Amino acid sequence: QLQLVESGGGLVQPGGSLRLSCAVSGFTFNYYVIGWFRQVPGKEREGVSCINNRNAGTYYKDSVKGRFTISRHNTNNTVYLQMNSLKPEDTGVYYCAARAGPLLQIRLCADWRPYSNWGQGTQVTVSS
After folding, report:
1. What are the start-end ranges of the E strands in the chain?
2. How far apart are the first and last CA of the chain?
3. What pLDDT, in 10s, does the model give residues 61-87?
4. Pairwise pLDDT comparison (100 vs 93), residue with the higher score
5. From residue 55, how far is each of 63, 70, 72, 90, 103 by CA, in Å?
6. 28-64 residue pLDDT tens
7. Is 45 in a helix, a strand, or coil?
8. What is the distance of C-alpha 19 from the center of its chain?
9. How far is CA 21 from CA 28, 51, 65, 108, in A?
10. With 11 labelled, which of 81, 92, 103, 110 sits at a CA distance of 20 to 30 A?
């Protein structure tokens, strides 16, 4: 059974950092593209960052470039999203999701609709 479990969210002040983890199980980790998405009430789910399978490329939403770093580790089947210099507009529920790879154009990973497997989400709140 495919399973993705997020952790690492919380309340942080502007300028602070958080590291989100997405632990995956039940499928061959290296076959899948993993994406991080953010959901804010009243807005469409948006792609924040994603990583191609076999570490063949990454994508970042423009507003997080230079602040967020995505990485995947085959030793423990986990994808991390390191978030630095957090801003109030980074607030939302963060979900990780998986879709079969590879993607020839990594920017396509930002579209949430083709993803078939999702975690339960973790809340990130950036506030003073």
Report:
1. 3-7, 10-12, 18-25, 32-39, 46-51, 58-60, 68-73, 78-83, 92-100, 117-118, 122-126
2. 40
3. 999 999 999 999 988 999 999 999 999
4. 93
5. 22, 10, 7, 25, 11
6. 888 999 999 999 999 999 999 999 987 779 999 999 9
7. coil
8. 10
9. 18, 14, 19, 22
10. 110
> Is the distance from CB of 78 to CB of 72 less than 8 angstroms?
yes
In 3D space, the residue among 52, 48, 42, 51 whose CA is nearest the CA of residue 60 turns out to be 48
Amino acid identity of residue 43, one-letter, is K
Which residue in 88, 84, 80 sits closest to 67, CA to CA? 84
Half-sphere exposure of 15 (CA within 13 A, CB side): 1
d(C-alpha 72, C-alpha 39), whole Å: 22
Alpha-carbon gap, residue 106 to 87, rounded angstroms: 25
Residue 87, both tokens? 């801003």
